[in-house]
Amino acid sequence: MPNLTVVIGEEIRSAQEEEGRIIGEILAELELPVEQPCAGRGTCGKCKILHEHGLADPDEIEHKHLTAGELAVGNRLACRARIAGDTQVVLAPITVYSDKNFKASNRYKREKDVPLGLAVDLGSTTVAAFLTMLDNGEVCAGGASLNQQAVYGADVISRLSAAMNSEPDALRLHRLAVSSINQAVDSLKLSARIRQRIKKIVIVCNPAMHHLLRELPVDKLALMPFQPHQLDAIHGGVNLLDNIVGDDVQVALPPLVGGFVGSDALACLAYFQFDTAPAPMAAIDLGTNGEIMVTDGKRILTASTAAGPAFEGVNISCGSRAVDGAITQVAVDGKNLVLDTINEQPPVGLTGSGLLSAILAFCQLDAIEESGRINPDSPYTQPNPDDQPGFRLPLTAEGKIWLSQLDIRELQKAKGAIRAAVDILMMQLDLQPSQMSRVILTGSFGGQVDIGAALDLGMIPPVEMDVVENIPNGAGLGAATFLTEEGFARGVRIAQESEQIDLDANMEFINRFVDGMGL
Question: What backbone torsions phi and psi does residue 205 show, to the nearest 5 degrees?
């Protein structure tokens, strides 16, 4: 009988199976995770897996539910794909959603002779895609998907380690990156006619995503002295998206700033105009990796710190992404809490912003101490399902969403890393909080975080509230500016002018990190 191999990150499961059997049925028997909302009837198209070899050709149902791009990267439906010999498949989260907030242009519908471009932000957790006008960079549509590489771990170190230790894993991480980009582009739901007008794609990402996407050696990037294999820009012609886009489409990658700071931060620098800043300013891209950018109006300093996935609602006991019912804000009303949820639906979990404001609320109720320890004597403290102290949200016996001590610690570590990085860059430029004319919070978390909570909990320095602003999608919208030749050249120039500060070599970082964990 044929051998079936299922790859889930660095775990491999094997089984002997009969030829012609449906993959979805086997995965269910093996108790392996695969989403099948329609119970395998082939009507929802959600049970996507990544095929490496051995499956029979796609049937008409798969052709109906899968795009040409998905089929090109090897996506198949587990409920339809059948074994045709020794088979190998990869399980990864293939989830598409759209929470991109920006001012969109409809000009592409009116002026049908203007070529179009795609700006892609390949993040560690989220992959965003934006359709733009190539003549002036106007953004027309945006969408996103989850980075399927998360099956190898939420952090980039785990992924780099897997790629360094195994050539097959390195190839899979590349394919998962390409598949994630394709899913993000598919989330735009572009017609065939619109797709034919796309002539250029720019992809920005951090150094780890850049190297995994391009299949570059990662040994120097993953280990001391943490140097990239290549910094240079790729202007076009790189065959990263073969069979997904036409042969006439240029795919360009802007340069990296350094081994820690990538072209995603560079895109933020361009979009927020750091190269022409008239006064001190800072931008913080808050996500699994936190990119910090500070200028005094002359020098541009950058740094990256591993904030962890707490800002994305990951590794939180009741964490949630931006879905209906996800808690985005928690406020104190007397002795009660008021919860804001997406689309005012019943609460289902905590987003990163909800986590931050929930912790602030319980601090205001003296239920969480300055050290981050849950006050055991607080009337709000209850044993959670693991019999550990925690809090219910809402504050009723029926409240099923928990905030645990470990959740608080995850947030403390994330905010401590961000605060330490900002403080060090400001110190290098001899800047005081009172001198900052502008502080921008961007990224999937930063674009919607509660500014008051960020200030009150000390995640950012004590600047005046009116200088802080949320601007979503800085990296993606900055990537859109790189689609023109002039914009791309400007990005190269900014990369050359920017300085990367290596926090791992900074003796002050640990002390400031510990101080920054306080609430």
Answer: -170, 170
Residue 64 contacts residue 32 (beta carbons within 8 Å): no
Contact 48, 145 (CB under 8 A): no
Report the percentage of the chain scoring pLDDT > 70: 95
Reading the block at residue 175, the tokens are 């394919």
Cα–Cα dist 356/80, whole Å: 43
pLDDT confidence band for 155 (50 / 70 / 90) = confident
**Residue 365 bridge partners (DSSP):** none
How many whole angstroms separate alpha carbon 410 and alpha carbon 414? 6
For the sheet with 349-350, list strands across it: 336-341, 326-333, 349-350
Per-residue CA distances from 183 to 13, 159, 187 (Å): 26, 20, 6
Helices within 283-328 (DSSP H only): none
Single-letter amino acid code for the residue at 513: F
Cα separation, 416 vs 421, whole angstroms: 9
Residues 412-416, mean pLDDT to the nearest whole number: 92
pLDDT for 309: 62
Per the CB < 8 A criterion, the answer to whether 262 and 232 are in contact is: no
DSSP E strands in 42-95: the ranges are 48-55, 75-77, 83-90
3-state DSSP call for residue 218? coil
The rounded distance, in Å, linking the Cα atoms of 197 and 133 is 10
In angstroms, the CA 85 to CA 190 distance is: 36
pLDDT of residue 33 exceeding 70: no
pTM of the model: 0.86
Six-digit token pair at 9? 């990150």
Question: Residue 251 in 3-state DSSP?
Answer: strand
Q: Extract the tokens encoding 322.
A: 């931006």
Q: Is 280 helix (H, G, I), strand (E, B) or coil?
A: coil
- pLDDT tens digits along 244-279: 888 889 999 999 999 999 999 999 999 999 999 999
The larger pLDDT score, comparing residue 213 to residue 44, is at 213
* 130, 119 Cβ separation under 8 angstroms: yes
Residues written for the chain: 519
